[in-house]
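Input record, target 12 of the design panel.
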């Protein structure tokens, strides 16, 4: 005879851990996108209004909508501040997306545009342009910097691809470190023996948005735009690559093609951005980590959100540089390092670490 307790027994509730579903993930992405766009609008307005001569936002709006060439305030906004703001928008997006692609490609959480020798290659090419071809203006640096960045990236990828295993994350990182060391020593050797090159190079090398005009933007925008589009096109493939090469191949993915396209994307983005504003650090390292922490590792959401978020950080650093040393200014590369280091330390604390 069955005891009453057993007859009436019902299975108790099963304790489960709720995970955010696709709808919850989409809400987080949309929330981040809205906040990023709002912050970007504020940062852009500050970039146009703040400087050695602070101007009210009403004057900024009037200069953009009803430009008067006889008004000196309008001239400052449209001829000086607007170009550097637009260059900052393009360069910030390029650095962050390039960093996210590099981290996904190499599966290395500290990968950033300097890993593949991009910065050192661009610096060496600019030094050659100054010493050999007597290039003295920022507009003339663009093509040398872009060519040097592209050549260094191709060299690193060629070295890292040698051998039966092909290009692996470790080999690419080691090849990048070796090429960077060699190119940096060559740059230092030239600068120490050529005073003209040192004087012309120092402001570009530290990273700056000052004295950037629309000509520089138009020269670098095609490569940056092509790199951003290519990054979005391979975002799904980067998700597969993040699971490991064997898993990606098992899913039918062409790993070699993905790596080659990612390398081209990095060359286009880093080459264009570095040519425009110099080798600014931390933007391509911090922003992908911050975005990944809040929206997850899916590159289909990560890459476009990095492109919207990073320009805000770069423009805010530029505004800080203009304010702290009036009537002069500190270069944005210096402020980015000062702001970026503590932010990165906060992001990589063990309780907040985010895996790729």
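The sequence produced for target 12 reads:
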């Amino acid at each position: 005879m069955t005891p009453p307790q057993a007859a009436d027994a019902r299975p108790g509730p099963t304790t489960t851990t709720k995970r955010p579903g696709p709808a919850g993930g989409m809400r987080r992405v949309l929330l981040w996108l809205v906040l990023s766009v709002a912050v970007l609008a504020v940062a852009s307005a500050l970039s146009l209004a703040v400087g050695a001569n602070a101007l009210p936002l009403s004057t900024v709006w009037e200069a953009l909508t009803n430009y008067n060439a006889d008004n000196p305030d309008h001239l400052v906004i449209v001829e000086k501040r607007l170009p550097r703001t637009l260059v900052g928008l393009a360069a910030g997006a390029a650095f962050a997306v390039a960093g996210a692609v590099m981290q996904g490609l190499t599966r290395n959480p500290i990968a950033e545009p300097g890993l593949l020798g991009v910065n050192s290659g661009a610096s060496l090419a600019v030094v050659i342009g100054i010493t050999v071809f007597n290039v003295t203006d920022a507009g003339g640096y663009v093509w040398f910097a872009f060519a040097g960045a592209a050549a260094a990236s191709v060299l690193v990828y060629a070295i890292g691809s040698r051998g039966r295993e092909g290009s692996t994350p470790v080999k690419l990182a080691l090849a990048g470190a070796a090429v960077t060391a060699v190119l940096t020593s060559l740059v230092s050797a030239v600068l120490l023996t050529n005073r003209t090159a040192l004087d012309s190079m120092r402001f570009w090398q530290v990273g700056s948005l000052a004295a950037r005009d629309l000509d520089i933007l138009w020269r670098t925008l095609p490569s940056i735009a092509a790199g951003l589009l290519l990054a979005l096109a391979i975002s799904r493939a980067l998700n597969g690559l993040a699971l490991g090469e064997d898993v990606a191949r098992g899913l039918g993915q062409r790993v070699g093609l993905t790596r080659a396209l990612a390398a081209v994307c990095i060359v286009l983005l880093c080459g264009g951005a570095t040519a425009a504003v110099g080798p600014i650090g931390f933007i391509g390292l911090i922003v992908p980590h911050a975005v990944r922490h809040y929206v997850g590792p899916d590159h289909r959401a990560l890459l476009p959100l990095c492109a919207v978020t990073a320009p805000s950080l770069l423009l805010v650093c530029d505004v800080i540089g203009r304010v702290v040393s009036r009537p002069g200014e500190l270069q944005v590369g210096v402020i980015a390092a000062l702001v970026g280091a503590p932010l990165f330390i906060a992001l990589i604390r063990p309780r907040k670490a985010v895996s790729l």
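The chain has a mean pLDDT of 84.
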